[in-house]
Every structure is written in C-alpha cells, then in structure tokens.
Design brief:
Layout (H helix, E strand, L loop, with lengths): L2 H66 L2 H5 L1 H8 L7 H13 L8 E8 L4 E6 L8 E2 L5 E2 L7 H8 L7 E3 L18 E8 L2 E11 L1 H9 L7 E7 L9 E5 L23 H8 L2 E5 L5 E7 L8 E8 L1 H19 L1 H34 L12 H67 L6 H29 L6 E4 H11 L1 H6 L3 E6 L6 E4 L1 H18 L5 E8 L3 E7 L30 H11 L3 E6 L5 E8 L4 H19 L1
Parallel strand pairs: 14-16
Antiparallel strand pairs: 1-2, 1-7, 3-4, 5-6, 6-7, 8-9, 8-12, 10-11, 11-12, 13-15, 16-17, 17-19, 18-19
Helix pairs in contact: 1-6, 1-8, 1-9, 9-10, 10-11, 12-14, 14-15
C-alpha cells in the first residue's frame, strides 16, 4: 500500500463513515414524500402521450376514409364491379390511369415511405402507387385481367375482406408485403384497409401502408421525467400473434418504423403476468426487477377497434434515489471540509513524485497496447522523472516512424510483385483470346449476309452476340495495355494546357452524369513538366473517370494542380461515399473493382499506378474527412538522366523488333 492510500484509509474511517450515516437519516423523510409526488407527475405525462398518439392515428384514419370516398376511387368502382362479374370493363386502362394520377398527388403530403393499393374482391392489386412511383400492370391474372402485383393466392385474406365492416377503416397485415414491398416487411404497425362496395356488392378495397416516422418522433421527443424509458405495447386478445407485441421501446431500442426479423413480444421482456395485469387495470404502477418502478396507461388508439395500446414508463431504482443521493453528498461534503483540507496538505508532498510516475506508467501501457505516441507531456519538477519521460517520447516516435516505413516498403514490394506476375499472365491470355474473338466477329458478318429480310429475330440475336464479342475484345485490349508496360517517351510540355486538355476529354461523361468539373490551377504560367504526355494523360483520365462514377448526381469533382519541391502534384477530389477502409489497400490490385459487373475491368488504377511509378512518382488514394475520397498524383518535374537513357535504349530495342 502506498503513502497516499495509508493517509486516505485512516481519515476515511475517522470521518466519512459517521457523516454518511447521518446523511441517510436526514434525507429518509424527504425521499418518502418525493416518491408520492413522482407518481402523479408520471401519470399525467403518460396520459398526455396517449392523447397525442390517438390524435395522430385519428388523422391517418380520416385520410384513409376520405381517400376511399373520393371521386377518383368511386370512378374505378364500375371497373371492379365488372371484374367481380368476370367481365372486362371497356375503360379499364383509362380509369386506372386517372386513379394513378390522383394518388400520385399525395407524394408530397404523405410520409417518406407509403404504399396505396386499390384491390379487387380477391385481394389482387389493380392500382398501386408508392413513394417511389406508380406500378404498371405487368402481371397476367388467371382470367386475363392484368394486375400490378402477382396474383394473390390467399383464401384466408379473401375471407378477411368479406367480413370487413362496411364504411369503416379496419386494420390488417397485408400479405402483399412479403411478395414485393421490401420496405414494409417486418413492421409492427398494421395497414389501413377500407372495403369498396358498388351496387350493394363488395367489389374491392383501398389499402394504405404508412411508414410514418411522425409517431416515432413524437415518442422520442416526449418528456421523460426522471430519466424514465418508454415502451409501447399492443393488447389484442383476439389476435394471439399481436397480443403483447412491443411496438416501441427505448431499451432495445425498437421503433414503429423499424423492420424486424421476428416480432418482439412482452413475454420476452417482463413475463406474461404483465399482460393479465394490464387487461384488468387501465392505469397504475408496478414494482419490477431490481427495485425499479413501472408506470403505465392503457388506451384505445383507434375508434371502433377492439385493440388497445399500453404506454409504459420505467424508472430504475437508482434514478428514484438519485436526488437524495446528491443531497447526502452535499451534507457529507460540508462535514468533510476539514478532511479535504487535510488531504490537500498531505497530497502536496506525495504529488511531486507519485503523480508523474503514475501518468508515465499509464502512457507506457497505452503505447504498448495501441502503438501510437501521445503528445501529452509529463510535467514535473523532478529532473530524473522528466528525463525518463523525454527518453520515452523519443523512443516512441522513432519506433513508430520505423514501423510506418517498414509497412510502406512491404506494401510497395507486394504491389510490384502482383503487377509483374499478373501482367505476364494477362499478356498470354489476351493474345490467345483475340484470335477466337476475331473469328467470331467474322462468322457473325457472314451469317448476317445470308439471312432473309424477314429474319429480324435472328438478326437481333446476332447483333447481341456481336456486341458481347466487341465488349470482350475491349476488355482484352485493356489487359494487353496493362501487360505491355510501355516505357514513357519523355518530352517537355506545359502543365496548365495539358491539364485543361485532359479534363476536356471527360467533360461529356461528366455532363451525362450531371457532375460539375472544377479546375484549381495553382501553377505559374508556362511552368513545364518532363514526361510522357500521353501516358500521364491516360493515368489522369482514369482517375477522373473513377471520381465521376463515384460521385452522386449533381456532385462536383475538383481537380487541383500545383508544383512543390521539384514535383508536380495533381489531386482529384470527389464527393461520393468514399472507399470502405476494409478494401482501401486493394484498389490498386489488377481486376479489382467496386462497380457493378460489366461496367469496368478493374485495370484503370493498376495502369495508372504503373505509369506513375515508371515516371518515378507516386499515386495515393485516401478518404476525405467529410465524404468522398482524393486521389493524389505526384510526378517529378524533371526526369533523371539515367531514366531517360534507359527509356531511350528500350525505345530503340522496340523499334528494332518491329522492323524485323
């Protein structure tokens, strides 16, 4: 036990223990009165939340009722009536289009995710408009009637439609979500549905599915007295699958608009005895595990529905006694003021040595665990302790720098090995595949000449084969370019005109994707760069195309150029989603691509890296702090004499081979 521990132990036993006992005795009476007032406050809060939920749900019900009685929906009732009688209405498509236009007008006032369906008497979807778009009738029904969604084979749902009360909104869980509506699968909140009648016969129904975040927002913003946590549960004795279903829970957390793989029931949280208690008493409080309190209020969220919700507020035992704990601490602090003064005087001598050593020990442990040096210097008046801290800082910085250099060298060696081995393999494969592809294209031309004029289907198939063969040939050409590793032909050229010409090559691609290109030229007029103009332009074009494809519509790609320390630095910054850190080290690997299959060969960055390294430069890609990523290309302004001589010899050798 150290010096400080000894001093604290004796003072604690002499003063803190008696004062703590006195504080408990003094605050017991106030705690009893506080718990009584807490019950009234929470009951009023729960009643306010229940009223707010009822008002918002009543608004949704009124919307569905008004929608079912609107002229646009009434206009399609004859179509549904003819469908019920097995006939096709002559104005089916016209009236379906009118309803679609009418329902699309609600996209600006409904929640972000919604689906409105007009169904026939068998539950099949005739009209569907969602937050995304209207759905065309692309599915063929058994009776030849075209439907918006696959024909429903659910006799239980059809029986439910037949028994729905007339002129009243009911609640059901639509089986349609399991077919196509992925946004609405697994939601605890049920769908609104109202039957449609024509000539006193059931001809269909209007169903509205709302993913309304307003209810969740209202519950999240509700006042939580004394750090209580809310939970919303449905009581539905007639529906065993939903009886005890947890709709909202701060502890999980669970939300009304949150999709779930499986339903969460109250049985899984507090036991079945709570359900029986809620059914017997609509408002009250219970003691739960751990000594906490559970306050609840039962209410009917929907008019004319035998479904009730229970809004609960749970307070832990620690929160109930927290105010009195603070009072006890204040009383104990006043009584222990003398102790504090004594502790301060006793700590002055100990602090000069023990605290710096303890901080240094903690820094050593953190560095051993995280391998990252800290800038938090150890301040002390003891020279020996200060010398040890400075020696540790120097050791940590040196070790970290050495490890970073080692890791960088290893990555470069691995990348060079990958490029070399894959380049050799790619060259052989590319040459072997070119000849069969050329033969395929020739045979396609010959086959097309012998086709009769009416063979449009065969001609279309031949065109498709030709397109795929041409695409395969372009991929192989990219592989050959990657494997060829053409040596740069050095020449002096102006940086600014070269950059402007390169950007113009991708302007049309940028316009097609609604991307703005912004050039930040910080070079002096007439500043020159020595290198292979065409190869460097190819490398920069690859970076620009990657940035354009990674950006969202309406985004901006910034291209900046500057000279610094005898090098030309070009940066391409996009505003996309960035690159996942798990695959950031793989972006230069040949054939690695994050784009969809068929939209790229995965060789662009590998080719750009090879070009830059043959110029004695480097290419780095890093994520931006906010969003997107930045590719930085660094090229020496002047090539070394040895490199130019070697490249010139290679050029002569290549020329001799081509002459032979």
């Amino acid at each position: 036990m150290n010096i400080r521990a000894h001093i604290f132990t004796w003072l604690f036993l002499g003063t803190i223990v008696p004062l703590t006992a006195l504080a408990f005795a003094a605050t017991y009476y106030f705690e009893t009165d506080y718990r009584a007032s807490l019950r009234d406050d929470l009951a009023g809060t729960l009643r306010h939340i229940a009223t707010g939920l009822r008002r918002r749900l009543a608004g949704e019900t009124r919307f569905v009722t008004g929608l079912a009685r609107s002229p646009a929906i009434r206009d399609i009732l004859p179509v549904l009536y003819a469908r019920r009688r097995g006939n096709a209405h002559p104005e089916l498509n016209i009236r379906r289009t009118r309803v679609n236009r009418f329902l699309e007008g609600f996209q600006t006032i409904l929640p972000p995710v919604f689906v409105i369906r007009v169904m026939d008497y068998q539950g099949n979807t005739v009209v569907k408009v969602s937050h995304r778009r209207r759905s065309p009738p692309i599915y063929e029904g058994i009776e030849g009637f075209r439907l918006v969604e696959p024909e429903l084979q659910d006799p239980h749902f059809v029986r439910q439609l037949d028994h729905l009360p007339r002129d009243r909104v009911s609640l059901l869980h639509l089986p349609h979500h399991e077919l196509l509506s992925a946004d609405l699968q697994g939601l605890p909140k049920q769908d609104y549905i109202m039957p449609l009648y024509h000539r006193k016969r059931l001809v269909g129904a209007v169903a509205v599915s709302l993913l309304n975040e307003e209810l969740d927002s209202f519950l999240e913003q509700a006042n939580r007295l004394h750090r209580s946590r809310l939970r919303l549960v449905e009581l539905n004795p007639d529906n065993g699958a939903r009886n005890g279903l947890v709709l909202f829970d701060d502890d999980r957390p669970l939300r009304l608009v949150q999709r779930r793989k499986k339903p969460v029931r109250l049985d899984d949280v507090n036991g079945t005895e709570l359900l029986a208690h809620f059914e017997q008493q609509s408002e009250g409080e219970l003691t739960i595990d751990g000594g906490g309190r559970l306050f609840y209020n039962t209410f009917f969220p929907y008019n004319d529905q035998l479904v009730s919700w229970v809004i609960m507020a749970r307070i832990d035992a620690g929160e109930l006694s927290a105010p009195f704990g603070r009072m006890r601490r204040v009383i104990a602090a006043l009584g222990g003021l003398a102790l504090v003064i004594t502790l301060l005087l006793a700590s002055i001598g100990v602090r000069q040595v023990s605290r710096p050593l303890a901080r240094l020990s903690a820094r050593l442990k953190r560095f051993a665990h995280d391998r990252e040096p800290e800038n938090d210097a150890v301040h002390t008046a003891v020279d020996e302790v200060r010398d040890i801290a400075e020696a540790f800082d120097y050791m940590a910085e040196t070790l970290t720098h050495t490890e970073q250099e080692r890791d960088r060298a290893q990555r470069m060696m691995l990348q060079h090995a990958k490029l070399a081995s894959i380049g050799e393999m790619a060259a052989g494969i590319g040459h072997e595949l070119n000849n069969p592809l050329n033969n395929i294209l020739s045979y396609i031309k010959l086959a097309r000449r012998g086709l009769p004029a009416e063979a449009d289907a065969v001609r279309a198939d031949l065109d498709a084969v030709q397109d795929e063969a041409v695409r395969a040939s372009e991929i192989i050409q990219g592989i050959l370019n990657f494997a060829r590793q053409v040596k740069p032909r050095y020449e002096l050229f102006a940086i600014s005109p070269w950059l402007a010409a390169t950007v113009r090559l991708v302007e049309q691609v940028a316009r097609n994707n609604s991307i703005t290109l912004r050039i930040l030229d910080r070079c002096e007029p007439g500043e020159m760069l020595e290198g292979d103009r065409g190869q460097l332009q190819q490398a920069l074009v690859n970076l620009l195309l990657n940035a354009i494809h990674a950006s969202d519509t309406g985004g901006q790609v910034s291209i900046s150029v500057r000279t610094e320390h005898d090098a030309c630095i070009v940066s391409v910054r996009d505003e996309g989603r960035g690159i996942d850190s798990a695959i950031l080290d793989k972006v230069f690997d040949p054939f690695f691509s994050t784009r969809e299959e068929g939209q790229g060969t995965g060789l662009g960055l590998s080719i750009s890296l090879g070009i830059v390294e043959r110029h004695g430069g480097r290419l780095e890609i890093a994520n931006n702090p906010d969003h997107g990523c930045t590719a930085t290309l660094c090229i020496p302004l002047r090539a070394s004499d040895g490199k130019m001589s070697t490249d010139h010899d290679h050029d002569n050798t290549d020329t001799d081979h081509s002459l032979r």
